[in-house]
Amino acid sequence: MQSFSDAQLRAFLDESLPVDQMAAIEQHLRADPSLHSRLLHLRGEEDAGLHTIGGVWRRNRLSCPSRSDLGRYLLGVLDADYEAMIRFHLERVGCRFCAANLEDLRRAEEETASQTQGRLGRFFQTSAGYLQPHKPKP
After folding, report:
1. Largest CA distance in the chain
2. What is the pLDDT of residues 26-83, one digit of tens each?
C-alpha cells in the first residue's frame, strides 16, 4: 500500500491536488480502512479549528495568480520571471482551479475572435458597394 502524507491528505480534502493524485488517493481509500480513518481524523482537526499554515495557504489559494494575471499570461505580456512562476504553478503544481480558469479565458478569447471575424465580414459585405470606384455619369 502506498502511504500518503498528512499534507497530501489535507490537500485531497481541499480538492487541490492534481487529478492523478486525487484518483490515486481515492483508489487507496476504497481498499484501506486505516486511510479512511486518517482522513476523518484530519477533517476533525480542521473542524475543531486546528489549522495549519499550509492548509490556510491552500484553502485561500494564496499561490494562485489572479484571473487578470492569467489573462496576461495567455496574452504573453508578463515579465519572464512571473510567467515562469505561473507556468510552474499550472504545469508542475497542477493547480486545477487555475487550469480551469485559464481554459475559460482561452474559450472566451476564441469566442471573441470568432465574433470579431463574423462582424468584420458583415461590415465588408455591407460596405462593398461603397468601395467600388466612382464612375462619372455620361
Report:
1. 97
2. 999 998 999 989 988 888 877 666 666 766 777 777 889 999 999 999 999 999 999 9
CA distance 66 to 46: 26
Q: Do residues 26 and 74 share a domain? A: no
CA-to-CA dists, residue 33 to 8, 27, 38, angstroms: 17, 12, 9
Quick: pLDDT tens for 100-135.
999 999 999 888 877 777 666 666 666 655 666 666
Q: Are residues 69 and 112 in the same domain?
A: yes
Cα separation, 2 vs 8, whole angstroms: 12
User: Are 57 and 78 contained in the same domain?
Assistant: no
* Phi, psi for 30 (deg, rounded to 5): -65, -30
In contact, 25 and 8? CB cutoff 8 Å: yes
Range of the domain at 51: 1-62
Structural domains in the chain (count): 2
